Amino acid sequence: MSNLRLNALHITHYKNVSTAEYRFEKPIHCFVGHNGKGKTNTLDAIYHLSMGRSYFSSINAHTIQHTADFMRIEGHFFREDNIERVECQLKRDEPKVFIRNGKKYAKLSDHIGLLPTVMISPSDVDLINEGGQTRRIFIDRLIGQADKVYLQQLIQYQKILQQRNALLKQMGQFAQNIHETLSIYNQQLAQLGVPIHNARVRYLASFEPLFQKRYATISSGNENVGLIYHSQLLDEDFNVLLEKATKKDIQAQFTTVGIHKDDLAFEIDGYSMKKFGSQGQRKSFLIALKLAQFDMLKKSTSVTPLLLLDDIFDKLDEQRVAEIINLVHESSFGQLFITDTHPERTANVIKQTEQPFEIHRL
Prior knowledge:
Elements: E1 2-14, E2 18-23, E3 28-32, H1 39-51, E4 70-79, E5 82-91, E6 97-100, E7 103-104, E8 117-120, H2 126-129, H3 132-144, H4 148-171, H5 179-219, E9 225-230, H6 238-244, H7 246-252, E10 263-268, E11 271-272, H8 273-276, H9 279-301, E12 303-304, E13 306-309, H10 318-329, E14 335-340, H11 343-351, E15 357-361
Parallel strand pairs: 1-12, 3-14, 3-15, 8-13, 13-14
Antiparallel strand pairs: 1-2, 1-4, 4-5, 5-6, 6-7, 9-10, 10-11
Helix pairs in contact: 4-5, 5-6, 5-9, 5-10
């Protein structure tokens, strides 16, 4: 088992040049300052280098300052006795460039899993409030960082799905002539979708006990929570599903069945967390979910992930903060990055960990 460490971070926005540089020699680092000073953006820069994308937006231009046209992020990571120098270059309206140790990636997906990272943010409430796509992304990031085969199958599945949907949309009234081509796509989707489904079943079966344990600690065992995986493939063969849905797909002009419709239901005492969970229960649920993600990645990758906490102390009561602090007392802890608006509060809480820390004022 090895720890992942970030030793240095450089962020530069070009035009009216804006540069930020950090050295990280301690296990805990806190970015503090008033709102709008760039604390969350700094944390997101670390996530971007780890995961190849922003945590908050899929649009690259949203990561670049409004007054700039080019952004460069560079991080020096220590992993398994090796220094990994990772660089991300973002230019408006151009493809993202990702470089590892001076060599440009041919496929960004090759980078995923090298630097396992977990972010906990107030925006995580979308996991409860939004639709199934948000929860599928959570599942895919959980598995994709640990399983290269899964990630490549998922990427290929999405490509075939887009091609099938494009065919359905383009043919329109001539759709009766596309059955043979649809059959080819069906076979390809099933070949990719079945192992993806099986991986989700397998990983979630290992993930739920970790989640249950984390939630029990946070809530003192006062409630029963559950994760229910919903998939059409649980009840029927994928090929059969696609064949049965052919007429409906032609009418709808998109693929109506498949693993891209999977979802994860969140329950508390047998009821929907979204409908019946209190604000405090939702917060506990989300923190437990993310800490279990940390545990799962550590178990799956044999590397202790980075843990990023965005504005977390302003959103949680002392009991929930205590659970996160307990994490850094454990041997499983690696490196922790925190943002907050109150340096004194942050320092007082972090001192309880008895770990060396540093405050970075923005």
